[in-house]
Design brief:
Order of helices and strands: HHHHHHHHHHHHHHHEEEE
Number of strands: 4
Keywords: Membrane, Transmembrane, Transmembrane helix
Shape: globular
Protein name: TRP C-terminal domain-containing protein
Oligomer: single chain
Largest sheet: 4 strands, antiparallel
């Protein structure tokens, strides 16, 4: 599943370039709109069933609400309000928040219930840290786009004269945008302090090679910075397409040069695919520059439109091929591992039948105290000497293991070690 997330993140930059304020001829724009819906996980078709409910909350008519421009509308941002533009992301956020609240309740109950403890341990490993960070990364672009669109449109209006629903959308947009920027700083600090090596933050450096270049560990954070700059350029400069092309081309070339010099991924295949995606995005921007310069030359515009479609299809096919190759390699490794384990078990069984197990020995220490009396004559005196000795014995217990269930008698072997004599004399 992580391979699919990575593929969608890699393609998100080139797909978002369809929001540049330059009309694209042919079917390239509808294809980009469909791909952006897949990448942003807008698969629940919320415009069919969620919009009436949101209209009741916002109390806003269709005449008052319109997209920021046609190019953003073609990519799924059909409103100026964040609740409409989030779409499926809004549902996923609610599910994520509900699961986090449920995990918190299970933590409180873990001290009183074994079932609550097991559920909390399950959710902690998969949801609380790694799952939440992955969700933020996956939904980073739609959250930034939706909040920034709402903030820009609301800045032109008098919020005091608007309905409470519209003011709610504006406040929610400001909060989400501020939280996204704060998360960028937090993720950067986590990586800088080395906490990303911990299991709960490992999503930030997952799949990155930190041995070649120290900047590689910041690659996920750099990607989020790049997406933020792209969103700012596309939303704040909607009326200036030439500046959009210039800034995005510089950003794409900078990202491609960093990818080539740093090579942040563990796998050479991943590095090659990431560099390929950056080059495809740069080529896409240059084709858009040619499309903006084509003017009214319809044959040239159609040819450039076909070039855009070809670049998109080529990027998608190559990335999907990478996913299939990596899945095949992973399946092959697992099958080979199981096969090797099965062969080892078979060989061990054969060797055990050929060579019976050696005798097992257990050494115990037996301590005994022995007394010995002797008589001596010194002149007319008669002395009776009583000597006490502590005798220590190492008892070696040998037991033969047989395959049969019948009991086997034990064989004993004694080794005696004499300790230092302790002599006491008694006079009679």
């Amino acid at each position: 599943m992580n391979l699919i997330w990575d593929m969608m993140n890699d393609l998100s930059f080139i797909i978002s370039l369809g929001m540049i304020s330059i009309p694209i001829p042919g079917i390239a724009s509808p294809i980009q709109s469909m791909l952006s819906a897949i990448i942003y996980m807008d698969l629940l078709m919320t415009d069919k069933w969620l919009s009436p409910f949101l209209e009741w909350i916002v109390q806003n008519s269709e005449d008052e609400d319109s997209p920021l421009n046609l190019f953003l509308e073609s990519q799924g941002f059909q409103s100026q309000l964040i609740l409409y533009n989030l779409g499926s992301t809004l549902i996923f956020i609610e599910i994520q928040v509900f699961l986090l609240i449920y995990a918190g309740l299970m933590r409180l109950l873990s001290s009183m219930s074994i079932l609550g403890k097991k559920q909390y341990e399950f959710l902690e490993k998969r949801l609380i840290w790694g799952g939440t960070i992955r969700f933020i990364i996956q939904q980073f672009q739609p959250l930034i786009f939706s909040s920034l669109i709402n903030i820009r449109c609301a800045s032109k209006q008098d919020l005091r004269a608007q309905s409470p629903g519209i003011r709610l959308n504006f406040c929610l947009s400001v909060i989400i945008f501020a939280v996204m920027l704060a998360l960028l700083v937090i993720f950067h600090v986590i990586v800088k302090k080395g906490k990303a090596r911990e299991y709960k933050y490992s999503t930030l450096i997952e799949g990155l090679n930190q041995t070649k270049n120290p900047f590689a560990q910041y690659w996920t954070v750099w990607t989020l910075y790049k997406w933020t700059l792209m969103c700012l350029i596309l939303i704040l400069l909607t009326d200036y397409p030439c500046q959009q092309l210039q800034l995005l081309t510089i950003l794409s070339l900078l990202s491609a040069s960093l990818q080539l010099s740093v090579q942040p991924m563990d796998s050479p295949l991943e590095n090659a695919i990431c560099l390929f995606n950056e080059l495809m995005a740069t080529c896409y921007l240059y084709v858009l520059i040619g499309l903006a310069s084509a003017g009214d030359d319809i044959p040239l515009r159609e040819a450039l439109g076909l070039s855009l479609i070809s670049l998109l299809i080529l990027a998608i096919v190559v990335n999907m091929l990478k996913v299939f190759i990596l899945i095949g390699v992973e399946i092959y490794k697992r099958i080979r591992k199981r096969w090797c384990n099965r062969e080892r078990v078979t060989v061990s069984t054969v060797e055990a039948k050929k060579h019976p197990m050696p005798e097992l020995e257990e050494i115990k220490e037996d301590i005994r105290e022995e007394e010995e009396e002797t008589e001596e004559f010194k002149g007319d005196a008669r002395l009776k000497i009583k000597q006490s000795r502590i005798r220590r014995r190492l008892v070696i217990l040998q037991e033969k293991r047989q395959n049969e269930a019948a009991s086997v008698p034990h064989q004993y072997q004694n080794q005696s070690i004499w300790a230092e004599d302790v002599t006491s004399k008694q006079f009679r």
